[in-house]
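== Polypeptide entry ==
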Amino acid sequence: MAVRRAAALLHRMLLLAAVAAASVVAGAKVPSMYVFGDSTADVGNNDYLPWSIARADFPHNGVDFPGGKPTGRFSNGLIGVDFIAIAMGANAANSSSEATRNMTMAAAAAYTTGANFASGGSGLLDSTHLANSVLRKKKAFSKCRLRLPLWYTSNLKDQMSTRLGTARVSAWALLSKSIFLVSAGANDAFDFFSQNRSLDSTVIQQFSEAMISTYDSHVKTLYNLGARKFAVINVPLIGCYPYLRSQNPSGECVDALNQLAKSLNDGIRELFSNLSSEMHELLATSFSRLEEVKSACCVGGRFNAERGCIPSSNCCSDRSKYLFWDLVHPTQATYKFAGLVVYDGPAQFVSPISIKQLVEA
């Protein structure tokens, strides 16, 4: 019973992560969507980053995606961003790889319709990648990766200003009408916990304050570029990930990690309540309706969480019944439920407004 309650809580938070990415949204009110997030939002960007070792470009990933081949998404098929984009009448999420590799006029013009900058393994703090070696140590990219997409966004704005010109809508006006989805913090929390197994309330508070300060800085950077509409995603209850529970002798969730996530989420809520009223905040919760909430579908060992999802792994036959795909990522079934609920769910699940309402604001 305790495991199911914890897993249900985890699912609520995973729903927040499920909407961490989207890319192309057409329409006059919201001309584009720009996304910053981690592996729950990455639609294949890491495949174009030669220094990244966090990839999903191999089976069984993508087994339920059209064509049945891996796409770089950390799941068996579509992720939350895809379902949200479809609900908005847009194409499935595009990656920003071309724009990040080639900051040309043509690339800038293409990305006036939005871009997905999410990257598996990314975090807020400079120390995150140094701790988990998600990035190989290269001088230009040894710091927190979120700063790099912010730099790209700034350059894209300059390119769009030149491309669009004064006779048409300015880049500032375009960005001010666009939606900015931000989901980050889970990797930072996990890395911090891995180095500080004994977490008391003081340590948690200090870490949370450092994270919120960094979060505040990044959001204000986007705001100064013209961003006005924000969809903000909570940190999942990572203490209930199958991997963490497989490492716990009791098999239960790791409470200290969940307390850390809750502290971060409280800080995020307070941060956005104090920001300009022009910055729209989106937080969402829901509940699990899936049958298997304890184990992952594609891995092995205890809770199917002691080995990663690789071509030789056993893969469950009915993936629609599973909450988790691998050690830490949801299945397509979870993402679909999450994406549709958060896009236009009832008030008890989405607060203060849904993405659909944010689009129409």
